[in-house]
Amino acid sequence: MGSLRGLRQVAGSYFRLYERGASSSLRLTRNSALKRINGYCAKPQESPKAPSYTYSHRVPLHKPTHWEKKILLWSGRFKKEDEIPETVSFEMLDAAKNKIRVKVSYAMIVLTVAGCIWMVIEGKKVRVDFLVCFLQRI
User: Fold this and answer.
1) HEC assignment per residue over the chain
2) Which of 11, 47, 75, 89 could form an SS bridge with 99, CB 3.0 to 4.6 Å?
3) pLDDT exceeds 80 at position 101
4) Over residues 103-121, mean pLDDT
5) What is the mean pLDDT of the chain?
6) pLDDT-based confidence at residue 25 (cuts at 50, 70, 90)
7) Apex CA 102: angle with CA 98 and CA 107, to 5°?
């Protein structure tokens, strides 16, 4: 544990020395866009400009696995497995997965309601059987 503490102290002192060197170099530069204010570096107020970079419209593509191909088919995106291209976009996969997720949730709702109705019917059968047995004993 002592060596770890010493290592942390050495690293801390190294970074403090590095920060001093960096701050002095900031003060010595002439055409720097940064100025030193109360120990902090801040950019001067500038008017907002349009970004100089251009946005590329290329969408990253993904080679679908066998399972993802099945999802694309079940979601109705493609009719046959032969129609699925070699690479598809992540957005297409996400849309297909969301559609399957919604279909599964609808199926679960239907199964839950059907199960509740079935339990009510079974419960009434048990109640009728119980009453018949109870009345025969009396």
Assistant:
1) CHHHHHHHHHHHHHHHHHHHHHHHHHHHCCCCCCEEECCEEECCCCCCCCCCCCCCCCCCEECCCHHHHHHHHHCCCCCCHHHCCCCEEHHHHHHHHHHHHHHHHHHHHHHHHHHHHHHHHHHHHHHHHHHHHHHHHC
2) 75
3) yes
4) 96
5) 76
6) very low
7) 145
> Can you tell me which residue has the tokens 């679960």?
108
Q: Are 45 and 76 in contact (CB under 8 A)?
A: no
Which residues lie below 8 Å from residue 100, measured CB to CB, with a gap of 6+? Answer: 71, 74, 75
Q: According to the model, what pLDDT value does residue 67 have? A: 92
CB of 68 within 8 A of CB of 85?
Answer: no
